[in-house]
Amino acid sequence: MTAVPVNRRSTATLDRRAVRREQVRTEDPRGGSSAKRPSWQRAYVRRLFWTDAVIVVLAVVSAHVIRFGQDSLLTVDAVHALDYTLVSVAFAAAWIIILAGFRTRSRRVVGSGFEEYQRVIASTLRLFGIVAILALVFRMELARGYLAIALPAGLTTLLLSRWLWRKGVSRKRRSGQFSTRVLVVGGARAVRHMAQTFERKKADGYYVVGVCVPRYSGVPGEDIDVGGRCIPIYGDESSVDEALKISGADTVAVTATETLGHEGIQDLVWMLEPLEADLVVATGVVDVAGPRLEMRPVAGLPLIHVEKPRYHGAKRSGKRLFDLMFSSAVLVVLSPVFALVALAIRLDDKGPVFYRAERIGLDGRSFAMIKFRSMVIDADEQIPALLDRSEGSGLLFKMRDDPRVTRVGRIIRRFSIDELPQFINVVRGEMSVVGPRPPLRREVEGYDGRVRRRLLVRPGLTGLWQVSGRSDLSWDEAVRLDLSYVENWSMVTDVLIIGKTVKAVLLSEGAY
C-alpha cells in the first residue's frame, strides 16, 4: 500500500485529541459553533420556500395589475376581471407547486449554482408550456400580455433570489458554517487528492473531518497533512462506523473504489442505512460536466457513461453565430471608447495605437491578435532581459510591476480595456468570445499531448481562466481550467462566463 505521510504523536497527545474529537461533534469544523447539517438545511429550505412564494405572488399580481388595472383585482361585478382574479390565484398556486415538484429546493442542489438554476428555469418554462397547451385545448382566451409580463418578471426574480441566497451560503461556508462534514474512505493518494480539492473549493461546503484508508496498518490517531491542516486517520474501512461517531461527519465519500471492491462498497451502503449519513462515490472521472455523464444500469451494474465532447456540427455553428452577433454589437456600442483610448495612447508617447501579437489558434494555426498598445514600443525585445524576474509558473511569463507598461497602459490593463480590440479577431473568425487563453508560439512548442487539446477550439477573449483569477493563476491551474472548458463547453456556460467576466473586470480581480 502507498505510504501515508503522517505526524506521529505521543500517547498523551493522542488522548487529548480523543477528547477534542468528542467536542468537535457539536462544533464548527473551523472553530465556531455551528448547527448540524439537517438543522441548517431545513431552516434554509423554509426560507427559500417563503421567498419563492412571495416572488411568485408578486410577479402574478404585478402582471394582473399592469394588464388589467389595479381595481380589477377585487372588482366582483366585472366578469372578466373576476375570471382573471381566479386565474391569477390558480396560476400562482400552480407555480409554487411545480417549483416543489421539480425539487428546486432539494437539499442536494440548494446552494449548488448551475443545477439549482436549471431546475428553476425548467419548472417555470414547463408551467408556462402547460398553461399554453390548456389554453389551446379548452380554447381559453388568455391575455398574452398577462403571461408575457409574469414569465420574465417571475423567472428573473426567482433566479436573482436564488443567486443572492447562494452568495450568502458561500460566505457562511468560507467562515466554516453550513458545511457538509465529510469522512473520506479510499486509498492513501486518493483521499489526499480529494481533501485537497475540497480545501481549494471552500465555497462548495465540503469539509473533510477524517479519513479511513483500507488495509491501513498504522496507528489510529495519526494525521495526514493537507494544506497545513492535520486530518486524523481513523483506521481502515472497518472503522467507518466508529469514525462517523467520533468525527461527527454527515457524509461518507468513497474514492479509489478498487481499494474496497464491490462487496466492500455494498457492506458500506448497508452499514450506513440506519445512520443519518449520506454516501457519495467519486468515479475518478474529473473535469467532465454533468450533461456528459449518464447513469445506466447494465447487467446489474450502475455504469456511468461518458459522452464524447463535440467540437463540430450545429453546436459549433451556433457558437459562431453568437460570436458574430455579440462582437458586432460590442464594437458598435463601444466605438466611442475605442476613439478615446486611441487618442490617449497617441498623446502619451506618439506610438502606434494597436499592438499585434502572434498567437496560436484553432488547430494550431497562427494569427495576429489585436490589442490596444499598453507597453513601450520595443516591449518584445526586452523580454529576454526580464525572464529571470518572471512571476509566472510553467511556460507563462508575467510580472506584477512590469517596467514596460506605459502610464495609459496601466489604466487600460487594470480594467482589461486593452483587450477590447480582440472583438475584431472574433468577427474575423480567429477567436471566440469565450474559450481557452490564446497561447504564444513558444508556449505551444512546449505543450505535451494533453495540453495540446486546448487547440481543439478557438481561443477566447475570456474564459474560465479569466473568471478564476486571471494573472493570479498558476500554469497548472490555467491549463486545467482550459482543458475543462474544451471538454464541456456549451452556450449556457459561455453566457455564465461572460457575466462573471464583467464582474471580474469591474472589480479588477487578478489584473496587472
UniProtKB/TrEMBL annotation:
Record localization: Membrane
Biased composition (Basic and acidic residues): 17-30
Any single GO CC term annotated in Swiss-Prot or TrEMBL for this entry: membrane
Residues that span the membrane, as ranges: 48-69, 81-102, 123-140, 146-165, 324-345
UniProtKB keywords: Membrane, Transferase, Transmembrane, Transmembrane helix
Pfam families: Bac_transf (PF02397), CoA_binding_3 (PF13727)
Top class in the EC scheme: transferase
Enzyme Commission number(s) of this protein: 2.7.8.6
Protein name, as recorded: UDP-phosphate galactose phosphotransferase
Organism expressing this protein natively: Rhodococcus coprophilus
Taxonomic lineage: Bacteria, Bacillati, Actinomycetota, Actinomycetes, Mycobacteriales
This protein's encoding gene: wcaJ_2
